[in-house]
Amino acid sequence: MPELPEVETMARELAPRVVGRTFTSFRTDWPRAIKYPAPDRFESGVVGREVLDVARRAKWLVLTLTGDVAMIIQVKMTGQLFVLPPEVTGDKHVHHVFGLSDGLELRIRDTRKFGRLGLYRRDEAGTLLGADEAAELFKDHGPEPLDPAFTLRAFRKHIRGRKGRLKSLLLDQKFIAGIGNIYADEALWRARLHPLRSAASLRPDDERRLYFAIRDVLGEAIDRRGSSVDDYTSLEGDGEMQDYLNVYQRTGEGCPRCGRPTRRIVLGARGTHFCSWCQRLPVDQQTPANRKLLAPARRAARKGPKWSELPTGPGAIGARPAAKASR
Ligand SMILES: [Zn+2]
């Protein structure tokens, strides 16, 4: 899932392709993606407006349009952006198409259709207005980790008094905007901090390492145009950061620092990767709950094949209802 560096890369690569162009048309075959306003109003609101700027906030793309209007694109899991000539057709996963005044089209491809679009008014301060949805939009996002105002001092103030484990805290968008599973694991590895460690137990030196680890890994990932794991790709193609990850999805491979195998545990339904040698859990943090999370997963003994491994087709037993029930 695209995180801050991936969405930042998309914003940077989208800007030269759309800024200065006017939207001449809009069509969609998936209007449910339009969060605000109603699809027909979205179309009339967007057509005829020029794109002035493309920026990123948290994991959203924010396109500033003429008339103090901002269009938001949330790419979510599988959203991809392309600017292509209209002749290139035939991709059934393209769900939203914006005609551009230079004759090209901005297309949003989204295999799983979790992405969202919105069109909002801005007030003088740049805040998005015009709907309850808009007011809700960014209110739950914490500070931008690469904002110059987000200094080490600000980070210390921000993290002190926080409860919970470091991994969960880094994933919390209300704490810091834009970090997801990849860069939470990578930042904690760089900072040599165990993902299950409690935020409250950090000493000043731990805070300092974590702060710089977050900023460094996100900065490096932007320089390398993001991590093309899963579906992420940007307008100029795949990123390269996936080749420079130290722990994420490297279970069993040697830690680049100490050579010991990378471990994976599941925390809050998310895979969490770390080096148990470089990222020690202090003795006072080895609570029963943490020890349970760290215990090697016991595989349930399987009796015969799963239903999904049984033959399918006419006469197959219960395939449809089972598929529904298992979701
Ligand atoms: Zn290590």
Short synopsis of the structure:
27% of the residues lie in helices and 20% in strands. It is built from nine helices and twelve strands. It has helices at residues 4-18, 39-46, 132-137, 152-159, 166-171, 181-190, 204-223, 288-294, 319-325; strands at 23-28, 34-36, 51-57, 60-65, 69-74, 79-84, 94-100, 105-110, 116-122, 128-129, 263-267, 270-274.
Explain this structure:
The chain folds into two domains: 4-137, MutM-like, N-terminal (N-terminal domain of MutM-like DNA repair proteins, Alpha-Beta Barrel), CATH 3.20.190; 152-294, Helicase, Ruva Protein, domain 3, CATH 1.10.8.50. A hairpin with a 3-residue loop joins β4 and β5 (69-74). Mean pLDDT is 90; it is low at 319-327. α1 (4-18) packs parallel to α7 (204-223) and α6 packs across α7 (204-223). With 327 residues, the chain is an alpha+beta fold. The chain has helices at residues 4-18, 39-46, 132-137, 152-159, 166-171, 181-190, 204-223, 288-294, 319-325; strands at 23-28, 34-36, 51-57, 60-65, 69-74, 79-84, 94-100, 105-110, 116-122, 128-129, 263-267, 270-274. 27% of the residues lie in helices and 20% in strands. Strands 2, 3, 4, 5, 9 and 10 form a six-stranded mixed beta sheet that branches. The protein binds zinc ion (ZN). Residues 255, 257-258, 260, 275, 277-278 line the site of zinc ion.
